[in-house]
Inverse folding.
């Protein structure tokens, strides 16, 4: 059972992200593996422990995505691959999905692809479904638990109305949510191994792809409008007084 | 007139999600501005009622596929259905509601139709016949203006960001039945079972949310059962705290939310998490109980209309966003607050 985990490198979720002089900045916050993707790595490693095979972490991005891929290696993934190409700067989700799909085909003999639910920078949440569509493989999205029942995969999905159990044929693409399992910390040995690893870099030419046409452009990125809030602290002689005063204030806002 | 806009109507076993009508409302407006008609597409089994309803909410034409292979939502046959209609109708704009289903279908149709997708849009503007969309990124820490340069321009609309159109029962029409494009045997997935969530209001379309944070576990006056270990006792305490949060939510008809700290500590399931790695919400009223306000939580709820914070720590960052704050113990404030609403709202 060979598994590929698609990951993205993003600023840490605690970062104060803002636009300064037209540039996105996040202070001195570290670049990390997209938190959702850590769950995908964990799901892959758990399945590997049960089924054997190789786990490969795969990312499309600038040359500095090494850090997130090395976290994947340190967690226990066998291989890491970076696809980078000047023609992919400002790639949209479709271009990214086509590149991921081509890389998965090139890796070869892959039965499962794991993705996180979405990346916390662009908040697109479509890469897993788009990659599956390009590959022509079924997508089992938002999985909260996974079980192999060869030749099928069975997942429990979390959707608006409740939980749904779905079976799919392999090969398949699975996106996972947080319920799947707590991601493991990289081991000391893993970190040492990862720090010495040389990560193979593939270009569009290596994948046999032409420079893609992008369908989405981002003319502007701004800080959100400043919210003017008048803070009012409610006080009173007893909790009952405070509660009554607060209830009246809230009802006065006419939002109930 | 030609169909300028096609809207996917999301439903669960025939019951249309209100956010779908919001998307149709957007579609109606865009079609009027672009000088064309708005069509909708619905797939499922026994969905003719839903198909007829779409006329009441502004559709000019309704396509529906009624097939046993569509009885449960599955991505492949539904994406093929929408893409097939979109190929035939060639709309300028293809809209979906931002639901788990709508978002993944939008992505898949973008591949089928070789166009771009703009998920979770909060505002739309027509400029020279083309759309300019606003979408929050970094969970709302930044606001992006985005444009889809190909057609159809594929967009998913965020819930509660657009008005739901008025139902007009005098607006009717004859829906057009279409075939399900994928033969049942070609579908690679199978739905085995379903367990619906028990009661509760969904965070996604809640007008009011009451959330709890780490503070819900800190009631010193409670004695946990003796057979629990330290972690078990902490979770037991938190459950008592969340019961108070839940009581207030019930009286207000609200959904229950939680901070990442509360979810990570195992107090409440992950489905409930509000924030950058949970759900981004924007209700009319958000009551934060025992939540200090980490930046990643604030990103997920900062656009709520009225924010109320109850916290013991007067320096908690949540107070900066709060219209009303109470510096105090949630265990003392929540029970009388629930009572106060119960008597005032006559429940």
């Amino acid at each position: 059972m060979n598994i590929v985990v698609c990951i993205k490198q993003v600023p840490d979720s605690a970062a104060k992200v803002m636009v300064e002089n037209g540039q996105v900045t996040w202070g001195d916050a570290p670049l990390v593996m997209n938190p959702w993707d850590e769950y995908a790595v964990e799901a892959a490693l758990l399945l590997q422990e049960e089924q054997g095979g190789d786990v490969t972490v795969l990312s499309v991005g600038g040359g500095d995505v090494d850090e997130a891929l090395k976290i994947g290696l340190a967690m226990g993934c066998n291989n890491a691959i970076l696809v980078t190409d000047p023609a992919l700067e400002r790639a949209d989700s479709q271009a990214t999905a086509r590149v991921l799909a081509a890389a998965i085909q090139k890796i070869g003999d892959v039965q499962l692809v794991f993705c996180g639910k979405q990346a916390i920078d662009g908040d697109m949440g479509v890469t897993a479904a788009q990659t599956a569509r390009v590959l022509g493989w079924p997508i089992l999205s938002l999985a909260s638990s996974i079980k192999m029942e060869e030749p099928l995969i069975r997942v429990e999905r979390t959707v608006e109305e409740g939980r749904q159990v779905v079976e799919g044929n392999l090969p398949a693409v699975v996106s996972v949510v947080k319920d799947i399992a707590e991601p493991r910390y990289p081991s000391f040995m893993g970190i040492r191994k990862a720090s010495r690893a040389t990560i193979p870099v593939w270009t569009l030419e290596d994948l046999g792809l032409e420079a893609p046409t992008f369908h989405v452009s981002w003319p502007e990125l701004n800080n959100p409008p400043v919210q003017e809030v008048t803070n009012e602290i409610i006080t009173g002689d007893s909790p009952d007084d405070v509660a009554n005063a607060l209830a009246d204030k809230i009802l006065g806002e006419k939002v109930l | 007139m030609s169909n300028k806009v096609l809207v996917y109507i999301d439903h669960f076993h025939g019951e249309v999600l209100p956010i779908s009508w919001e998307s149709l409302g957007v579609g109606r407006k865009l079609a009027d501005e672009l000088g064309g008609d708005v069509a909708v597409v619905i797939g499922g089994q026994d969905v003719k009622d839903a198909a007829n309803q779409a006329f009441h909410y502004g559709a000019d034409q309704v396509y529906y596929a009624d097939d046993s292979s569509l009885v449960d939502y599955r991505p492949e046959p539904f994406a093929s259905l929408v893409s097939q209609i979109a190929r035939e109708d060639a709309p300028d704009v293809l809209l979906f509601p931002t639901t788990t289903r709508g978002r993944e279908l939008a992505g898949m149709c973008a591949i089928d139709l070789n166009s771009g997708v703009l998920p979770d849009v909060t505002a739309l503007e027509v400029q020279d016949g083309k759309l300019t969309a606003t979408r929050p990124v970094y969970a709302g820490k930044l606001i992006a203006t985005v444009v889809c340069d190909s057609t159809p321009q594929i967009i998913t609309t965020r819930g509660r960001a657009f008005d739901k159109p008025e139902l007009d029962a005098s607006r009717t029409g004859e829906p057009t039945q279409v075939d399900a494009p994928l033969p049942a045997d070609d579908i690679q997935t199978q739905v085995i079972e379903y367990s619906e969530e028990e009661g509760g209001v969904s965070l996604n379309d809640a007008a009011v949310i009451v959330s709890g944070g780490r503070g819900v576990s800190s009631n010193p006056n409670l004695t946990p059962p003796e057979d629990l270990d330290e972690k078990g006792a902490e979770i037991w305490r938190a459950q008592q705290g969340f019961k108070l949060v839940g009581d207030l939510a019930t009286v207000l008809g609200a959904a229950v939310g939680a901070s990442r700290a509360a979810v990570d500590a195992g107090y409440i399931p992950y489905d409930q998490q509000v924030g950058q790695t949970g759900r981004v919400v924007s209700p009319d009223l958000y009551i934060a109980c025992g939540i200090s306000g980490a930046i990643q939580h604030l990103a997920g709820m900062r656009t709520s209309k009225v924010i109320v914070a109850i916290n013991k720590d007067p320096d908690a960052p949540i107070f900066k966003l709060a219209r009303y704050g109470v510096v105090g113990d949630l265990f003392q404030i929540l029970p009388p607050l629930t009572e106060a609403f119960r008597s005032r709202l006559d429940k």
